[in-house]
Amino acid sequence: MGNTKIKQHYETAKKTGVLNISQRKMMEIPMNMKMLAPILRTLDLSHNLFKSIPEEIGIYIMLKNINLSNNKLTLLPDAMGALIKLEILNASVNQITSLPGSLSSLKNLKQVNLSQNLITEFPLMFCGLTHLDVLDLSKNKLTNVPDGVEGLHVTELNLNQNQITQLSDKLAECPRLKNLRLEENCLQLNSIPIIILKDSKISNIAVDGNLFESKQIADLDGYEKYMERYTAVKKKMF
Q1: Which of 1, 120, 193, 209 is deepest in the core (most CB within 10 A)?
Q2: Which PANTHER family does the record match to this protein (predicted)?
Q3: The whole model's pTM is what?
Q4: CA–CA separation, 215 vs 208, rounded Å?
Protein backbone atom coordinates (compact mmCIF):
# COMPACT_ATOMS: atom_id res chain seq x y z
CA MET A 1 0.00 0.00 0.00
CA GLY A 2 1.41 3.38 -0.96
CA ASN A 3 2.03 6.16 1.57
CA THR A 4 -0.79 8.23 0.10
CA LYS A 5 -3.26 5.39 0.55
CA ILE A 6 -2.07 4.80 4.14
CA LYS A 7 -2.51 8.47 4.94
CA GLN A 8 -6.04 8.51 3.53
CA HIS A 9 -7.06 5.48 5.59
CA TYR A 10 -5.52 6.93 8.75
CA GLU A 11 -7.19 10.31 8.28
CA THR A 12 -10.54 8.54 7.92
CA ALA A 13 -9.83 6.42 11.01
CA LYS A 14 -9.04 9.52 13.09
CA LYS A 15 -12.54 10.81 12.38
CA THR A 16 -14.51 7.55 12.51
CA GLY A 17 -12.56 5.15 14.73
CA VAL A 18 -12.76 2.66 11.84
CA LEU A 19 -9.64 1.45 9.97
CA ASN A 20 -10.12 -0.80 6.93
CA ILE A 21 -6.90 -2.02 5.35
CA SER A 22 -8.15 -5.30 3.91
CA GLN A 23 -7.05 -6.78 0.57
CA ARG A 24 -3.69 -5.02 0.54
CA LYS A 25 -1.32 -8.03 0.42
CA MET A 26 0.06 -6.85 3.74
CA MET A 27 2.37 -9.08 5.79
CA GLU A 28 2.96 -6.76 8.76
CA ILE A 29 0.89 -4.25 10.68
CA PRO A 30 2.05 -0.72 9.75
CA MET A 31 4.05 0.98 12.51
CA ASN A 32 2.04 4.21 12.14
CA MET A 33 -1.11 2.40 13.24
CA LYS A 34 -0.04 2.79 16.88
CA MET A 35 -1.11 6.43 16.86
CA LEU A 36 -4.71 5.25 16.45
CA ALA A 37 -4.65 3.10 19.61
CA PRO A 38 -6.64 5.54 21.78
CA ILE A 39 -9.54 5.86 19.31
CA LEU A 40 -9.71 2.73 17.13
CA ARG A 41 -12.99 0.84 17.57
CA THR A 42 -13.11 -1.24 14.36
CA LEU A 43 -10.09 -2.80 12.64
CA ASP A 44 -10.32 -4.78 9.40
CA LEU A 45 -7.13 -6.62 8.42
CA SER A 46 -8.90 -9.31 6.41
CA HIS A 47 -7.74 -10.76 3.08
CA ASN A 48 -4.07 -10.04 3.60
CA LEU A 49 -0.97 -12.22 4.06
CA PHE A 50 -0.43 -12.04 7.82
CA LYS A 51 1.25 -15.12 9.31
CA SER A 52 1.12 -13.68 12.81
CA ILE A 53 -0.35 -10.80 14.78
CA PRO A 54 2.16 -9.05 17.07
CA GLU A 55 1.68 -8.85 20.82
CA GLU A 56 1.37 -5.07 20.45
CA ILE A 57 -2.23 -5.68 19.31
CA GLY A 58 -2.97 -5.45 23.04
CA ILE A 59 -2.55 -1.66 23.01
CA TYR A 60 -5.76 -1.19 20.99
CA ILE A 61 -7.93 -1.39 24.09
CA MET A 62 -10.85 0.53 22.58
CA LEU A 63 -11.43 -2.08 19.85
CA LYS A 64 -14.94 -3.49 19.65
CA ASN A 65 -14.66 -5.26 16.29
CA ILE A 66 -11.62 -6.95 14.76
CA ASN A 67 -11.59 -8.84 11.47
CA LEU A 68 -8.55 -11.06 10.87
CA SER A 69 -10.21 -13.40 8.41
CA ASN A 70 -8.63 -14.74 5.22
CA ASN A 71 -5.01 -14.52 6.26
CA LYS A 72 -2.35 -17.17 7.01
CA LEU A 73 -2.46 -17.04 10.81
CA THR A 74 -1.49 -20.15 12.77
CA LEU A 75 -2.30 -18.69 16.19
CA LEU A 76 -3.60 -15.63 17.98
CA PRO A 77 -1.35 -13.79 20.46
CA ASP A 78 -1.91 -13.85 24.23
CA ALA A 79 -2.22 -10.07 24.08
CA MET A 80 -5.66 -10.46 22.47
CA GLY A 81 -6.90 -10.93 26.01
CA ALA A 82 -6.20 -7.24 26.67
CA LEU A 83 -8.93 -6.15 24.24
CA ILE A 84 -11.54 -6.12 26.98
CA LYS A 85 -14.08 -4.03 25.03
CA LEU A 86 -14.07 -6.45 22.08
CA GLU A 87 -17.54 -7.58 20.96
CA ILE A 88 -16.87 -9.18 17.56
CA LEU A 89 -13.89 -11.41 16.72
CA ASN A 90 -13.58 -12.82 13.21
CA ALA A 91 -10.51 -14.97 12.56
CA SER A 92 -12.11 -17.31 10.04
CA VAL A 93 -10.31 -18.80 7.03
CA ASN A 94 -6.85 -19.04 8.54
CA GLN A 95 -4.61 -21.93 9.68
CA ILE A 96 -5.12 -21.53 13.44
CA THR A 97 -4.49 -24.74 15.38
CA SER A 98 -5.02 -23.52 18.96
CA LEU A 99 -6.21 -20.48 20.89
CA PRO A 100 -4.77 -18.57 23.87
CA GLY A 101 -6.47 -18.97 27.24
CA SER A 102 -6.35 -15.18 27.59
CA LEU A 103 -9.47 -14.95 25.38
CA SER A 104 -11.43 -15.84 28.52
CA SER A 105 -10.87 -12.21 29.60
CA LEU A 106 -12.98 -10.84 26.75
CA LYS A 107 -16.14 -10.46 28.83
CA ASN A 108 -17.94 -8.32 26.23
CA LEU A 109 -17.66 -10.74 23.32
CA LYS A 110 -20.93 -11.25 21.44
CA GLN A 111 -19.85 -13.03 18.24
CA VAL A 112 -16.85 -15.23 17.50
CA ASN A 113 -16.17 -16.68 14.05
CA LEU A 114 -13.32 -19.20 13.89
CA SER A 115 -14.64 -21.22 10.97
CA GLN A 116 -12.27 -22.75 8.40
CA ASN A 117 -9.26 -23.21 10.62
CA LEU A 118 -7.34 -26.24 11.97
CA ILE A 119 -8.52 -26.19 15.60
CA THR A 120 -8.42 -29.66 17.17
CA GLU A 121 -9.56 -28.98 20.75
CA PHE A 122 -12.84 -27.39 21.74
CA PRO A 123 -12.06 -23.82 23.01
CA LEU A 124 -13.44 -23.96 26.55
CA MET A 125 -11.97 -20.51 27.25
CA PHE A 126 -15.18 -19.07 25.80
CA CYS A 127 -17.21 -20.64 28.61
CA GLY A 128 -18.33 -18.11 31.20
CA LEU A 129 -18.60 -15.24 28.71
CA THR A 130 -22.18 -14.27 29.45
CA HIS A 131 -22.68 -11.91 26.48
CA LEU A 132 -21.46 -14.38 23.84
CA ASP A 133 -24.35 -15.16 21.49
CA VAL A 134 -22.79 -16.97 18.53
CA LEU A 135 -19.74 -19.23 18.35
CA ASP A 136 -18.87 -20.54 14.88
CA LEU A 137 -16.35 -23.40 14.88
CA SER A 138 -17.46 -24.96 11.61
CA LYS A 139 -14.90 -26.44 9.20
CA ASN A 140 -12.24 -27.22 11.79
CA LYS A 141 -10.66 -30.47 13.06
CA LEU A 142 -12.64 -31.01 16.26
CA THR A 143 -13.25 -34.64 17.24
CA ASN A 144 -15.31 -34.18 20.42
CA VAL A 145 -17.25 -31.72 22.57
CA PRO A 146 -15.95 -32.19 26.13
CA ASP A 147 -17.34 -31.75 29.62
CA GLY A 148 -17.04 -28.13 30.68
CA VAL A 149 -19.05 -26.98 27.70
CA GLU A 150 -22.00 -26.30 30.02
CA GLY A 151 -20.41 -22.91 30.76
CA LEU A 152 -21.15 -21.68 27.25
CA HIS A 153 -23.82 -18.96 27.17
CA VAL A 154 -24.26 -18.90 23.39
CA THR A 155 -27.65 -19.17 21.72
CA GLU A 156 -26.04 -20.67 18.60
CA LEU A 157 -23.14 -23.13 18.38
CA ASN A 158 -22.00 -24.06 14.86
CA LEU A 159 -19.92 -27.25 14.71
CA ASN A 160 -20.71 -28.21 11.11
CA GLN A 161 -18.03 -29.95 9.05
CA ASN A 162 -15.71 -31.16 11.77
CA GLN A 163 -14.76 -34.75 12.67
CA ILE A 164 -16.81 -35.03 15.85
CA THR A 165 -17.58 -38.51 17.14
CA GLN A 166 -18.49 -37.68 20.76
CA LEU A 167 -20.74 -35.13 22.44
CA SER A 168 -20.76 -34.41 26.16
CA ASP A 169 -24.22 -34.63 27.71
CA LYS A 170 -23.25 -31.36 29.45
CA LEU A 171 -24.40 -29.60 26.27
CA ALA A 172 -27.90 -29.96 27.70
CA GLU A 173 -26.91 -27.67 30.59
CA CYS A 174 -25.95 -24.72 28.39
CA PRO A 175 -28.29 -22.03 29.75
CA ARG A 176 -29.18 -20.29 26.46
CA LEU A 177 -28.29 -22.75 23.69
CA LYS A 178 -31.11 -23.00 21.16
CA ASN A 179 -29.39 -23.75 17.83
CA LEU A 180 -26.91 -26.63 17.72
CA ARG A 181 -25.42 -27.30 14.28
CA LEU A 182 -23.68 -30.67 13.88
CA GLU A 183 -23.98 -31.32 10.15
CA GLU A 184 -21.31 -33.31 8.31
CA ASN A 185 -19.51 -34.84 11.27
CA CYS A 186 -18.77 -38.45 12.24
CA LEU A 187 -21.56 -39.01 14.77
CA GLN A 188 -23.37 -42.30 15.26
CA LEU A 189 -27.03 -42.17 16.28
CA ASN A 190 -26.13 -43.37 19.78
CA SER A 191 -23.66 -40.49 20.09
CA ILE A 192 -26.54 -38.00 20.46
CA PRO A 193 -27.08 -37.57 24.22
CA ILE A 194 -30.72 -38.30 25.04
CA ILE A 195 -30.78 -35.49 27.59
CA ILE A 196 -30.22 -32.93 24.79
CA LEU A 197 -33.57 -33.97 23.34
CA LYS A 198 -35.32 -34.62 26.62
CA ASP A 199 -34.23 -31.79 28.88
CA SER A 200 -32.43 -28.79 27.39
CA LYS A 201 -33.16 -25.40 25.85
CA ILE A 202 -32.11 -26.64 22.40
CA SER A 203 -34.96 -26.18 19.93
CA ASN A 204 -33.07 -26.72 16.68
CA ILE A 205 -30.51 -29.49 16.21
CA ALA A 206 -29.09 -30.04 12.71
CA VAL A 207 -27.54 -33.48 12.12
CA ASP A 208 -27.61 -34.08 8.35
CA GLY A 209 -24.50 -35.70 6.91
CA ASN A 210 -23.48 -37.90 9.86
CA LEU A 211 -23.18 -41.69 10.10
CA PHE A 212 -26.94 -42.19 10.32
CA GLU A 213 -30.05 -41.04 8.51
CA SER A 214 -31.15 -37.74 10.05
CA LYS A 215 -34.75 -38.95 10.22
CA GLN A 216 -33.60 -41.69 12.63
CA ILE A 217 -33.28 -39.08 15.36
CA ALA A 218 -37.08 -39.31 15.63
CA ASP A 219 -36.62 -42.83 17.08
CA LEU A 220 -34.68 -41.57 20.09
CA ASP A 221 -36.18 -41.24 23.54
CA GLY A 222 -36.99 -37.59 24.23
CA TYR A 223 -37.64 -36.66 20.60
CA GLU A 224 -41.22 -35.65 21.38
CA LYS A 225 -40.01 -33.21 24.05
CA TYR A 226 -37.56 -31.74 21.56
CA MET A 227 -40.32 -31.32 18.97
CA GLU A 228 -42.46 -29.46 21.50
CA ARG A 229 -39.70 -26.87 21.85
CA TYR A 230 -39.08 -26.80 18.09
CA THR A 231 -42.77 -26.23 17.34
CA ALA A 232 -43.13 -23.56 20.03
CA VAL A 233 -40.25 -21.58 18.52
CA LYS A 234 -41.68 -21.87 15.01
CA LYS A 235 -45.05 -20.59 16.21
CA LYS A 236 -43.40 -17.51 17.72
CA MET A 237 -41.75 -16.78 14.36
CA PHE A 238 -45.04 -16.58 12.46
Answers
A1: 193
A2: PTHR48051, RAS SUPPRESSOR PROTEIN 1 (PTHR48051:SF1)
A3: 0.95
A4: 9
